[in-house]
Here is the input.
Amino acid sequence: MTNRYFDLIDQTFYFPQEGFDIDNGYLTFNKIPLKYLIEKYGTPLKITYLPQIGFQIKRAKNLFNRAIKASGYSGKYHYCYCTKSNHFSYVLDEILKHNAHLETSSSFDIDLIRRLEKAKKIKKKEIILCNGFKPREYQEKIAALINDGFKNTIPICDNMEELDVYEEQVNGICKIGLRVATEEEPNFGFYTSRLGIRNASVIDFYKEKIADNPKFQLKMLHFFVDTGIRDKTYYWGELRKAVKLYCDLKKICPELKAINIGGGMPIRNSLGFEFDYKYMIKEIVNLIQQSCEEAEVPEPDIFTEFGSYTVGESGAILYSVIGQKQQNDSELWYMIDNSLMTTLPDAWGIGQRFILLPVNKWNNEYTRVNIGGLTCDNSDYYNSEAHENQLFLPKINEGEEEPLYIGFFHTGAYQDAISGYGGIKHCLIPSPKHILVDRDEKGGLTERLYKGEQTSDEMLKILGY
Ligand SMILES: Cc1ncc(COP(=O)(O)O)c(C=O)c1O
Here is the structure.
């Protein structure tokens, strides 16, 4: 028989492939016997495979360092982890084992840094990059961190006004970075990213506010292409513009030392994923080197802030198919035992694709399906139309005792934060205070506080700090 699910995968992709294999008819993930975990804990079930985190960091460091060595590039490479991708303490523990620096994106993130230092997991000399649009509280916490001896904390200014708080509150020298806003891809809803300072204003801003101010040392220029690092004219164009700006700035700002190219390194979201990490990293290093040579400025240190790349491939989530519904001749629904909307919010919110594989029944015939989540929401589904690939899974035959188990893989970045797992929030932005407003017998308004704003202690406890 050649229409088994196994044959479909075998003929369409290279299989088995890195991280995925079949053992006795059951799928394994990084050699983890998923059947064993399902039998022990039942579904729905989330898995984090911790060693993958170190693997990813080591690979990127190796590739950058090799490209640097091969081309005779004079700057160094720094791997920074952007905490917002996954803030859990067990993730940070792994990341710090591999000597990554950290990037923060909100006020509570600074509290997280404090906890890490208190637990002796980082030293005060650690490089901490503070990114994002910063409300006053975040700015003040950054200033206090620097004053408490975290001398390598670098706030990356998102706008020109941000400097005022550091000017007022930081004792002594304050190292800073500037984020330059990128132009979005032509098909996007707006032209220029809201994040960062527009390219055309950066030099004047430096001259007016920083050059003659002994408080500030501009150390880093940062940019981030939200659609990710891809071998496309658009990406190379944005990188070239940022490096040109770096070179122009460097000529008038001798203490400028680093370019930070942000996150966006892709991860495997299908078994057919092809991305040549070695080639891309080599090209990035070469482009920076060539531009610097042409402009006759020394090559900068290169920082990256890989989030998805660091943690994405460590995560998986397993469900049981608890029923099937043939809603018309061509639409078969597999109903699972949890919600896709709440466990994989990016699948719903931005049509994000994940690797989807059955855990068992690989020798059954395959069939085209839609996957339905348990909520009553019409949008709680995963299918080929929204998620770009034909969705085939094994048929469920009558009389089979074991349910079909399916897994979404490489789900380790952002899904917990965006879905609010246990009460956490994306970028650790707290839930606002909640006021109940009512009317009394005379029709007058009354109000009472239902719950105050979420505190950082509440959030950090959920995260294991
Ligand atoms: C400033 C900055 N750095 C890094 C990242 C991480 O991006 P990714 O998870 O794509 O690596 C983001 C994501 O939004 C970001 O805004």
About this structure: The chain has a mean pLDDT of 95. The domain at 51-307 is CATH 3.20.20.10 (TIM Barrel). The longest strand covers residues 315-326. The two ends are 53 Å apart (CA to CA).
